[in-house]
Each structure stands twice: as structure tokens, then as C-alpha cells.
Amino acid sequence: MSRVVRIGLVQSACTASREHNVAQAVAGITEAAAGGAEVVCLQELFAGEYPCQAEDHEKFREAEAVPGPLTDLLAATAKKHGVVLVGSVFERRTPGLFHNTAVIFDRDGSTAGVYRKMHIPDDPHYYEKFYFAPGDTGFMSVKTSRLEVGPLVCWDQWYPEAARLTAMAGAEVLFYPTAIGWLDGEEKLHHEQYESWDAMLRSHAIANGVFVVAVNRTGREGDLRFWGASVAYAPNGQRLVKAGHDTPETIVVECDLERIEWSRTRWPFFRDRRIDAYGGLIARWGGA
User: Fold this and answer.
1) Which CATH superfamily is domain 4-282 in?
2) What is this structure's pTM?
3) Which residues are annotated as catalytic?
């Protein structure tokens, strides 16, 4: 089987209508598959507006079980189009326990893996600790019929440890469903914030010799303007594709997985790691 995989990125703008949001996600998957995509990634919590701009108990009504109606629909869509699919959902695990969860479906519609977001932010308009328990799945690689999927979610993007452990588990592509944007009143920081985010994604590709795909939402929701710019990087840090900042967009990008070994044998960062000297990483600060 060819090691060239075509990956679809579905960047959307969400509204208050769950029906609309789900329909546009299905349309995006369909469009990506028609464009030759074999693997498709949706943005973070694609079925609704981003729920964490305020601490609102009513938002818990948006969550549902995994498996449940939404994941059943994703499974059927993956099977219909014969694609591996990464979908991000607001999971109700049991009454009072919720997660921000990525579910990976294989081309036959079967569930290949479930990853619960490990790093949970608590910033202005990103009050996720109110809603989500930290994930307990650990960092993983999910074997599918087309590639090894490394599922991570949004805030996980800022942690080199998460990318490293996911790559060490065997992931060939790190997938980051994302909801990140600019806050009103911080316009002087907008360029700096976006550039920092993009630099982190590129660094994960280079440091780990893997492909990196981040799919971000776009559009305005309340005081946030999501900055889009969904992106894919090759293992050497080459930017393969980038969506615009302000419009919904479905992109298909070709990734030759042979580039992973090519990059790792020329920049052998894995080989030269001093695993005997990294024990201090498990300390909160200063080795204690």
C-alpha cells in the first residue's frame, strides 16, 4: 500500500444551530472525500458554538454519551465515504462527569480509538475546567487502516511533552482539533498570539519527525474571533497548506509518510535523546 495519504482539514464557522453545525461538518467530510481525502479531521467541538466562554450550567445539556447519536452519525459518515475520521465531541461520561473528547473512526465506521483531552485550560473565555475533567486515556497512537493517528486536542498544542509521548507511541500524524481565537480588546497581541501558536505546531513536527495537522474553527462567537488558519506541517517543518483566517474552508493535503524516516535519519533527535537524564520532568518545579 502506498505511504502517501491524503488528509482533509474541515475548517468551519459555528452558529447557535446544532443542526446547522452538524450538517456543515458532514458536508465538509463529503467535500474532502470527493477531493480525494482518505483521512479527515474536524475542528474542536464542531457540533456547537464553543461552550466555555462563560461558566453556564445550561451548557452541560449539549453533552452526550460516547457512543451516542453524534458519534453514530460520524461513524456512518466515515463508512459512507470510506475515510478515517477524527471528530471532537463534548462527552457526557456519566452524570456530572464530562470530557473534551476526540473519537477516531476507521474507514468501515468502527471506532478505532477514544482520546480525552489531557490539558484543560482556564483562561478568560476559555473556562474549560468548569466543564471538563482532565483526560485519563494517556497519550496514544491509534492504529487505523490508513495510518497511525496521534489524537490531541487544542490546549495540548502548547506542551512538547504531549507531542513527544504521542509520537513515541507510534503516531505518524499528530491531529489537533482546535478552537482558538482572538479576544476583543487585545488587538495589539493578535499577531503575536497567532505566530506563537503556529510556531509551536511547526516545532512539534520538527522535534518529533512527524506530520502535524491542526484544524481550527473560524468566525465570531461572542467576544472571541476564532482565527482559523488550519495548517499542516511536514516532519521537516515545511508548511504544506494553510487555510485563511476568516472563512470556512475544506482543504485536502498530500502527506508522504516516507518523509518521517527521511527526516528522522537526517535530524536524529529521537536517537540522541538522553532518556537517562529526563526524570526531572515529572516534578512540578525545580526537581522537587
Assistant:
1) Carbon-nitrogen hydrolase (3.60.110.10)
2) 0.97
3) 44, 117, 154
